[in-house]
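Field guide to reading this record: the first block holds the primary sequence, the second block holds the structure written as discrete tokens, and the final block holds curator observations. Each block starts with its own label. This record concerns DUF2530 domain-containing protein, catalogued under organism Alloscardovia theropitheci.

BLOCK 1 — SEQUENCE
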Amino acid sequence: MKIAPIFDPEKRRETPQAEQVDLHIIFLIGTIFWLILAIIFGSFFLIQGIYGDRFMICIWGIIIGVLGLIWELYNRHLYRLVALMQQ
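BLOCK 2 — STRUCTURE
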């Protein structure tokens, strides 16, 4: 392990460039995943009365995913601008 970069900033490597990412796709895929699981566990809950706690976890996952999509819609220009500025 080299200690020189800790004491001498000129010997440090350059930081990697930020990548352009599309959080809309990531939030959408995660929300669809939680929706599928909510359908599965919801059917178990309605038919047999089991897995109610797992069904509620899925509902919260959907709520958080939708909130993430709304956040991404209003802040897309900000996180893309940060990646452009670092290039």
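BLOCK 3 — OBSERVATIONS
Helices lie at 4-7, 23-48, 52-85.
The longest helix spans residues 52-85.
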